[in-house]
């Protein structure tokens, strides 16, 4: 089966050339919530955990090494010229003897740059070919990722459920070999999907479909975010990728397939939720809530964060989010419903049961 190429040539190149921006931004302490509120992770392209990022790091190291050598040589020659030919007391001001038509010099400064450019072109082409997979291997898993202002939606067509902001994928090492192929779409403006330790950047563009793939080599939780300015909350459009063993992933997927918990102890809160405008935007499977504008809440409490990573998913933060989303994430598309204290408590109690 042919694997479609990205809609824009620039998007295809971003997997490899993206290391230039990545090398600059990776040094910034982008703190993102992990499983507990006290732990943070700084994404870095220099700490690869997948097939793609390992190759991108090797390529970027080669390019940076060649550039470092050129920089060192040029700087040394400039320093030598400045010191060797500086003005001295007693100079008569006349120009030194000029050198014209030196074949060795002209050959050197022509051939060496050409060789460097050819080497970089060949290595770049090979890296792009290696990263741009045209055929999907046996056992691959499809996921559709949709960028919204300002959160991520993930569809798992193989399993028939939807989740948000936390992408769970199976390990794809030499034993399991099950890479994840992403179909990338946007619901509104241009976004960019980027998990520095797992994959290169890929643009997410309205009315176009791009593709990316991830073959993680180690289990764990990896953080990323939108890498294209998409509005006021661009910096808080975060995402988490949870890499699990095949067995753990299958258990998680089976749990996500179940309908929402219907706990009679929170019947009042459930009734309040289902009679408000919440159901116009959110889905809770097994209920009349079938909205598609906001995240699927069927298993809300299985996620570590709310608001696309803006806060840890605790009852206190969830209550603050329901009561006034704008206070936690200014400009968020979710409105404050104006519920009274009792109704807010009831809705939060209901949402807490959605594991």
Descriptive notes:
Helices cover 36% and strands 18% of the residues. By secondary structure, the protein is α+β, with helices and mostly antiparallel strands. The protein has a domain of 89 residues: Cupredoxins -  blue copper proteins (Immunoglobulin-like, Sandwich). It has ten helices and twelve strands. The two termini are 37 Å apart. The longest helix has 34 residues. α8 packs across α10. The N terminus is likely disordered. The strands form three sheets. It has a five-stranded mixed β-sheet with strand order 3-2-1-5-8, with no helix packed on it. The chain is elongated.
What is CATH's topology name of the domain at 264-352? Immunoglobulin-like
Please report the number of helical segments.
10
User: What gross morphology would you assign?
Assistant: elongated
CATH C-level class of the domain at 264-352: Mainly Beta
> How far apart are the first and last residues' alpha carbons, in Å?
37 Å
Looking at the overall shape, the CATH architecture of the domain at 264-352 is Sandwich
Written as H for each helix and E for each strand, in order along the chain, the element string is HHHHEEEEEEEEEEHHHEEHHH
Radius of gyration: 27 Å
Q: What structural class do the secondary elements suggest?
A: alpha+beta
Number of strands: 12
What profile does the largest beta sheet have? Answer: 5 strands, mixed
Taking pLDDT < 50 over at least 5 consecutive residues as the criterion, the unreliable ranges are 1-39
Q: Spatial order of the strands in the main sheet?
A: 3-2-1-5-8
Q: Roughly what fraction of the amino acids lie in strands?
A: 15-25%
On the 0 to 100 scale, the average pLDDT is: 85
Percent in helix = 25-40%
Assigned CATH superfamily of the domain at 264-352: Cupredoxins -  blue copper proteins
